[in-house]
Design brief:
alpha/beta, Rossmann fold, 2 domains, 7-stranded parallel β-sheet, 7 strands, oxidoreductase
Length: 262
C-alpha cells in the first residue's frame, strides 16, 4: 500500500473544535497541509484568521451550540469525515473538593465531556452511513494524574472521556468508524508561555525557573520540556490518515515521559 503524505487527506472534510489557538490551531494547520477541508469552531473569531479554514462561532458547552455546528456543517458540506474533539476547559478554583459547587462540576463536564458526546452523536450517523470516519478525543494525562487543588474537575471529566471513547470505539469500529484518544501532557502554547512569564514576574525568578517549577508540580518531565503544539498535531495528523487505518480504540499519550507508570 502506498501513501501520498502531502495530499493524503484530499477530499476529506474535518472539524477541529477549539481550533482557533494552541494545539487546536496546530492540528487544523496540520490537516490543511495534508489536503483536508478544515472547519474550526470557537466562541470568538481567531485573532489571526486563515482564509483556508471555515469558521463557525459556537459555544459548545451548550446543547444549542453543538447543534448549530452539526447543522451548519451538514447543510454546507453534506458530511463530515474527521472529527477532532479538541475543545477543553480547566478553571478549577483552588481549595480542594470543599469549594467546588454543583455549578462548577456541571460546567466542566459540559465542556470536557458532553460537548464531544453531542458532536459524536450528531456526526456518527453520517459516518456510519458512508462506512468510514475518524473521531479523535483530545483528553489529558490529568485523567491519570489529577492535581486535587487545580485540576480536580477537569481530570474527572477527562477520565470519563477516555472511558467513553474506548466504549464508543467498540461499538462503531465494525461499522467502519475509528475512534481514538490522544492524551497530551503539558503543552507550551502561547497561553502557557504567558503564564510562565506571570509566574516569573510574581516570584522574582526567571521564566526558566517558572517552567521548572511547573514541571516539578507534574512530578517531572523526563524529556525536560513541555510539548510543542505542532508535536501533538503531528500525532493527530498520523492517526487520522490512511496510514493508521488499523488503529482504533487506543489511547495515545504524548507527555515527554511524565506519567511514571506503564
Amino acid at each position: 500500500m502506498e501513501f501520498n503524505f502531502e495530499n493524503e487527506l484530499k477530499d476529506k472534510i474535518a472539524l477541529v473544535t477549539g481550533g482557533s489557538k494552541g494545539a487546536g490551531k496546530a492540528i487544523a494547520d496540520r490537516l490543511l497541509k495534508a489536503g483536508a477541508t478544515v472547519i474550526i469552531t470557537a466562541r470568538n473569531k481567531p485573532e489571526e484568521e486563515n482564509e483556508n479554514t471555515h469558521f463557525i462561532a459556537a459555544d459548545l458547552s451548550k446543547p444549542e451550540g453543538t447543534q448549530k455546528v452539526v447543522d451548519e456543517i451538514l447543510q454546507k458540506f453534506g458530511r463530515l469525515d474527521i472529527l477532532i474533539n479538541n475543545l477543553c476547559g480547566s478553571e478549577t478554583p483552588g481549595g480542594g473538593f470543599a469549594v467546588l459547587s454543583d455549578e462548577d462540576w456541571e460546567s466542566s463536564f459540559q465542556t470536557n465531556l458532553l460537548a464531544p458526546v453531542r458532536l459524536d452523536r450528531g456526526f456518527l450517523p453520517g459516518m456510519i452511513s458512508q462506512g468510514n470516519g475518524v473521531i479523535i478525543h483530545i483528553a489529558s494525562i490529568q485523567a491519570k494524574l489529577p492535581l486535587y487543588d487545580s485540576t480536580l474537575l477537569y481530570a474527572a471529566a477527562k477520565a470519563a472521556l477516555v472511558n467513553y471513547s474506548k466504549s464508543l470505539s467498540n461499538e462503531v469500529a465494525p461499522k467502519g468508524v475509528r475512534v481514538l484518544t490522544v492524551s497530551p501532557g503539558w503543552i507550551m502554547t502561547i497561553a502557557s508561555a504567558r503564564m510562565m512569564e506571570r509566574i516569573a514576574e510574581s516570584s522574582g525568578g526567571s521564566v526558566e525557573q517558572a517552567a521548572s517549577g511547573v514541571m516539578d508540580a507534574l512530578g517531572g518531565i523526563p524529556f525536560g520540556r513541555a510539548a510543542w503544539p505542532q508535536e501533538v498535531a503531528e500525532l493527530v495528523g498520523f492517526l487520522v490518515s490512511p496510514r493508521a487505518a488499523y488503529l482504533t480504540g487506543t489511547e495515545y499519550v504524548i507527555d515527554g515521559g511524565t506519567i511514571p507508570t506503564l
